[in-house]
Amino acid sequence: GTEEPTGDTKKKIDILLKAVGDTPIMKTKKWAVERTRTIQGLVDFIKKFLKLMASEQLFIYVNQSFAPSPDQEVGTLYECFGSDGKLVLHYCKTQAWG
Amino acid sequence: ISCSMAGEEDFFLEEKRFKQYCEEFIKHSQQIGDGWEWRTSKDLGDGYLSKTHFQVRNRNIPSDLKEKNNDNIEQMLFTRVEESLDDSQVAGVCATEEVIRYEYHILYSSSYQVPVLYFRACFLDGRPLTLDEIWKSVHACYQARLLEGPWDTITQQEHPLLGQPFFVLHPCRTNEFMSSILTGSRKQNRHTNYIILWLSIVGPVVGLNLPLSYAKLGPEQNTNTD
């Protein structure tokens, strides 16, 4: 693959995905994701990976206490909440209204 | 906190706790100038969180442009104006950006024992948005779910304290999805502000995004349970 510069100029960040509750667990949990990928982009990716329907809802949380808005970039989240070289995100399949 | 027969914890929010979380929320809002305030109703002494903000929305965007992001939309709109429009069409294109005034209220529901998000929206000339316009303005990522059951999602109701018509995001599943995430964080003794967590989830559905700094509220570990 292509080489990437180390340090702050790395284009991708490491994300560790953890399932919450009854949500299916992803076989691969650790992903290198482009900094500019949005939360919504990540949600779509996880839903595809888990073979969920478009209308099923999946939410992503940081710090287990906050859901970043859909347009939030993961690079920013990494700067704010990353540690040990990765960003831990929890995801949960749930109905949020009704 | 009550416990269901299955041994799972329910996280029904008591009104006192609601007010405490709101207080913490307001404090942070004031620190960052996010515009939330606490209002009390004269007769009843009940209080609620309130915020007003303005959003610019693009209307009448041709469907082939909907896929592109906002920067491209503006570029393409201007290109179209230069290339192919005559005077009668220009007026229509200029009306494509509109300013909408949103007013959000967070009230406590004693019947559901959860917070509930009420909101209303109007154009600058005072015309309120219709329910249909509200549904159309829901963030793209929730549209698939919304289309399955719009009446389960956002409807119009009388505001419990003000008696005026407001839109409301249905709260009957709130306890369910809050419990899933709170169970995990509670096990790790994290202090989680219920209002912040809840609003960060439901807010974006109706155009309300919480700044990231709310996520850092409270110590990472809290040795005392709530």
Automatic annotation (TrEMBL), chain A:
InterPro entries: Atg12 (IPR007242), Ubiquitin-like_domsf (IPR029071)
Swiss-Prot/TrEMBL keywords: Acetylation, Autophagy, Cytoplasm, Isopeptide bond, Membrane, Ubl conjugation pathway
Protein's membrane topology: Peripheral membrane protein
Keyword Iron-sulfur: no
Intracellular or extracellular location(s): Cytoplasm; Preautophagosomal structure membrane
MF-aspect GO terms: Atg8-family ligase activity
Matching Pfam families: APG12
GO biological process, one term: autophagosome maturation
GO cellular component: Atg12-Atg5-Atg16 complex; autophagosome membrane; phagophore assembly site membrane
Protein task: Ubiquitin-like protein involved in autophagic vesicle formation.
Family from the record: Belongs to the ATG12 family.
Subunit description: Forms a conjugate with ATG5.
Listed name of the protein: Ubiquitin-like protein ATG12
Organism: Rynchops niger
UniProtKB/TrEMBL annotation, chain B:
Source domain of life: Eukaryota
Subcellular location, principal: cytoplasm
Keywords: Autophagy, Cytoplasm, Membrane, Protein transport, Transferase, Transmembrane, Transmembrane helix, Transport, Ubl conjugation pathway
Record-annotated membrane-spanning stretches: 195-214
Gene Ontology terms for molecular function: Atg12 conjugating enzyme activity
Subcellular location: Cytoplasm
Protein's GO biological process: autophagosome assembly; autophagy of mitochondrion; protein modification by small protein conjugation; protein transport
Annotated GO CC locations: cytosol
InterPro entries, per the entry: Atg3/Atg10
Family under the similarity heading: Belongs to the ATG10 family.
Entry function: E2-like enzyme involved in autophagy. Acts as an E2-like enzyme that catalyzes the conjugation of ATG12 to ATG5. ATG12 conjugation to ATG5 is required for autophagy. Likely serves as an ATG5-recognition molecule. Not involved in ATG12 conjugation to ATG3. Plays a role in adenovirus-mediated cell lysis.
PANTHER family in the record: UBIQUITIN-LIKE-CONJUGATING ENZYME ATG10
Full protein name: Ubiquitin-like-conjugating enzyme ATG10
Source organism: Rynchops niger
Upper classification of the organism: Eukaryota, Metazoa, Chordata, Craniata, Vertebrata
